[in-house]
């Protein structure tokens, strides 16, 4: 069920039916063991248990919960804050983007009651999707169609922001629910006011091909991205230009995600590799190659564990803070 090696931290894996194209831990601390992962046909849910949380576990255990038919390749997954396993009926709620440019909102009691709401409006590939993190009553998505769209849970579009290039990442500000960050492929990161529907601030990565960006959950003035194989870092209170710019991957980067347990820890993926960086150290805590292009990138809500999808596996790295 799992492998354990000493190659840049401790590595675990669990098997999947097909090549994983997206993976996402539940960001809710009380349900941090939940993980969703998708491939070309389905979305699957499981539970990851680590020895750091339960001393009776020998390293790592994985339990598959169930599969949901998807019908098209899953490109990204977002968890709703309405997910709850504490009361009956249990409810898991998450949204996916598919290769058919549609969003799908899934809700399930993990037994017999499942609903799927299809959100149709984007005219090209959807690169990212996110829930409003406090109430979970809105979803934002960005696409190659040069738009960022905001939806309600009935699938109705509530806002549409025109972009100057493909939208690659969208993040709700963790402390200010009326503020949305959108990263564009041509290197601009803008913050939008969801009340006035106006841009309020922008950051400039230069003349690059930006592939992914993220807000630091623990220190939201920190913004990071991966562009042209380099990771870049901003203190958004200081300058619109990045304070740091360093190479991560020789053959270009794909994903950038901040850890949720340390403001100095973040991960990036390249064509066939994963790296974890710590701003306080020159040494790279994790540098690992993969046999296929990494499918997604995410962090555990309460542990320094990052995960990526692979060829019939999900790979997880336990790092040291």
Which key features would you list for this structure?
321 residues, 4-stranded antiparallel beta sheet, 0% helix, disordered N terminus
Description:
The chain has 321 residues and is mainly β. The protein has no helices and 28 strands. The protein has strands spanning 10-15, 22-25, 34-38, 42-50, 60-69, 74-79, 92-98, 103-108, 114-119, 126-131, 138-143, 147-152, 157-162, 167-172, 179-184, 188-193, 198-204, 210-215, 222-227, 230-235, 244-247, 253-258, 265-270, 273-278, 286-289, 295-299, 305-309, 313-318. Strand 24 and strand 25 (286-289) form a beta hairpin. The model is unreliable at 1-7 (pLDDT under 50).
